[in-house]
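Write out structure tokens for NB-ARC domain-containing protein.
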Amino acid sequence: MVFSTFKLGLPHEISKLQKELEGIASEMDSFSLTQLIKFGFPRRDMGIQLGSTSCGSSSVSLVEEMNLIGREKQKEEIVEMLLTEDVGGNNVSVIPIVGMGGLGKTTLAQIVYNNEEIVKDFDLRMWVYVSVDFDVIRITKSIIESATERSCKLLDLDPIQVTVQKLLRGKKFLLVLDDLWNENYGDWDVLRAPFRVGLRGSKILVTTRSSIVSSIVGTTPPYYLPSLSDEDCWKVMKQRAFLNWNSDENERFEVIGKKIAKKCDGLPLAAKTLGSVLHSKTSEKDWDTLLRSELWDLPQDKNEIFPALRLSYHHLPTHLKRCFAYCSIFPCNHEFEIDNLVLVWMAEGLIQPVGEQRLEDIGSDYFSDLLWRCFFQYSHVNIHNQPVYKMHDVIHSMAQFISAGMCFRMEDDKGCWYPMFRNVRHLSLNHKNIQHITSKPFDRWRRRLRTFLVMCEDGACVGQIPSDLFLKLGRLRMLDLSCIGIDELPDSIDHLKHLRYLNLSENRFQKLPESIDNLVGLQTLKLRNCFELLELPKNLKNLTNLRHLDLDVKRQLNSMPSELGRLINLQTLSAFIVGKEKGRSVAELKNMRFLRGSICITNLENVMNVMEAKEAMLDKKPHLNKVEFQWNNFGDRFIQQEVLAGLQPHENVKELQVTNYGGIIFPSWLSDPLSCKLVSIHLQSCQRCTILPPLGQLPLLKSLYIESMGDLVNVDHRFCGFGTVRGFPSLESLKFHDMPNLTAWKGLSPADMPCLLELTIVDCPRLVTLPLLHNLSCLENLDISRCPKLQSLPEEGLPTSLKTLIIVESVILKERCKVEEGEDWCKIKTIQKIEIDYIEIPRRSQRI
């Protein structure tokens, strides 16, 4: 009776929740892993394909030599083909490497591309990733960018191809076109038109899965890449499986491991993936279980890579499975930055708390685990010097299949709102024009959608978000509207009460709706490169759960909102604009004890004294690793000296930049070897500075960049420091730039700067002498540009370690360094690369 009464009294909301949970359970059944194991591939009616015919992961030219296992013979053969002139009389030969996906075509091409003989033989090398999207303009621009290492802004094909011709004319070049799919003769004829101007012996190396492609582009017979032997597959597996194991343990597992290696069927990708799986399996029973697992059984006509990928996924912990599957909402070839991906996972509740550990740190560990298991691969370093990662196309396709029903990516004009996707939780939409997005399809997801990611190619979307869209997305946790060109955000955004992550970067609005202050659960707000943004919401202080406020350091904002110091949970605050009013002073940073990463503090002319500067308590923020101090005008020099002294950061800070500082001298903390662990220092436009601090006392300093110091006349022995630590013991790069009154640099002792690799001296019109003492035994690169009064190179000569010497618009030095005739020629003739006024002196001249 009691039970019945309770049942009848269930609140309406609980009843609805029960139905919703039942629906989720039904969905999970519908796309359970059993389908994946049973069929191996997704159904064709779902519009999802495995393999890279639907998308591709971008390749780069760099590769580790350890990836050469089993390819020594192939490397030698391809190198010989590249170094041998085409007997058919073609100036430019095209060599296709053909093989199935995962066989290592790209890796082989990377190894050959970086081969020492190849580097020496070709005047110019270029690497371009092509993939399925054969866009002649994009590919040709990539050729220019690879050749020049600069972005190509041209838009039309004709000037782009003319530029390529100019770059290639009269040069012996090597061009790698990686992952070519296009089977159209006409497209290839258009693309190759500028290549004919290359010198005889020029080569184009093409990697492709298609023999038809090789027949279209090749001027030589295709090179079919064989599979690895079972022994070589085992060697690849061992690299990962036995990392940090002792040799006794290795021997016990070799017999089973070699049997497992046979299942790889010669595919390097499968071997690497399995090696990662086996690394965490520490008992022979586990290895034997993998050997006998039914997950290996797949018909021969199926994709041979997929069993290994499927097996790798099957052995992931549950929390990693969810994080991996979630990544399917991002497009193929998406560039993943670890920090941002972790914040998205956090917003969706995919990261499980562990004691007092930060969720961000736990999420980084998740990513590292997935990276080690080959679900991600390293791509490159971005402009912020942060690593960027990508998913292999086959792995991305597997993520799409696994997450089908919960995650859905819709391409503009390539799909519809299928009823089968009614239970979607995470949606990404690639749309050409955001104004064409209507809110009607979102009716069915009113209570379901948790993720909404909108993307537009090249920021093509323009206009406003439909005003009623947010009214139907009240359960969203993650909203990404970055890079889509919107100029206004509707006030209705305050209906997203559960929102935790909001990315509005690279848009055109001048302000945000004040209603955004009601999103009290928000953890992350990204506003990078919003160059027209003038102000933040006045009551941003109400977002007390905010952990990451990512602003652009280019300071498009006029000021910070008042009392930002109430956001004591902030960990990321990339920029802070100091104001004079109460609630906007630098003291607002006082209680933000969790700040980490980098921060740019600007408008420091508004700080009036040392006590006010100390209120920021930067020395109590141990997690900051980069700090930038900026003034907009010089003001009172004594006040600015006091302020910089009071802004002493924590000793854990690794990078420091000081810009437009109006003091004459720098504070003592900047050169204190006991309280300063700086690795990089950039002093910029400190025009009143007359004495450089003794930075040679810093034991860890590797990079020093000094520019635009108008009052600095001399650099002497004091620059290298005093005491037990002196002489820049770790410095690798030193740059002097735009020093209009610098006349003399002297005072280096033979033991100073023992690790210096790179020395750059640019725009020092009054500089007369250099203190090089040939004793800089590690110096490899010396660049002297626009130093017209520099009288000569050091009498003692240059370091024998020097590999590159560049002299630009330095008239006296140019005359003294003339081949055979110049007085300083004997000092430089053995250097590998000499460039004077942008003209490289041929090696044969150096050998005379």
